[in-house]
């Protein structure tokens, strides 16, 4: 368990504000992890501990998201819920992989992971256009079902290991199954995120990888952000929120690469 760091009330406020912003961003555009994870690192947490703490702290926000899409979720096909299984397996495998990854090795991967998540977020619009133009009936075979299960397990693996950008990847997985209703797809991605992050969070807690002083304030901030900041973000406009996330993501990536090269 990591315990060696100086923490002040200002640190807690910064973590809570970051989580609040992430909650609002996630409810409108996604990508909130690109705000909270670098913030925890900036506050002094080692990358592995920051990643695990972020997963546990932000997880309650997925509960609220699933509740918000409960009507759409009730309308989804029963077979889609089988994706819970590869989500849980992949999330657990990813969390265990992070557990055994040497801290120095993970620290070297962080700039690439943040950049990868930002690029995935950048490609969100083309991916959604591809999803909308898919031919649903052509994807309702056993072959596509198996491909979808494998793809979702890989998404779960990545989600349990790092997590940023998994909502976009899961939309791709659902398109493999021929889904085109975006609200129903968002409902399912909320469920799968709940599973992936939930099992990862349990394993991180079991392995004593979580820095608890930040968890409560960030969980509260994330939930409040999902309700309060979402309204403000909608007034500002989803496009502007996405631009903000992209600027943050690429700026953080650049800073991390510069730090790594020193």
Descriptive tags:
single chain; 262 residues; mainly alpha; 79% helix; globular
Give the topology, please.
Layout (H helix, E strand, L loop, with lengths): L8 H20 L4 H10 L4 H22 L1 H5 L9 H17 L2 H20 L1 H9 L9 H20 L4 H11 L5 H25 L5 H25 L1 H24 L1
Helix pairs in contact: 1-2, 1-3, 1-11, 2-3, 3-10, 3-11, 5-8, 5-10, 6-12, 7-9, 8-9, 8-10, 9-10, 11-12
Give an overview in words:
79% of the residues lie in helices and 0% in strands. The chain has helices at residues 9-28, 33-42, 47-68, 70-74, 84-100, 103-122, 124-132, 142-161, 166-176, 182-206, 212-236, 238-261. Helix 1 runs antiparallel to helix 2, helix 1 packs across helix 3 and helix 5 (84-100) packs parallel to helix 8. It is globular, with a radius of gyration of 18 Å.
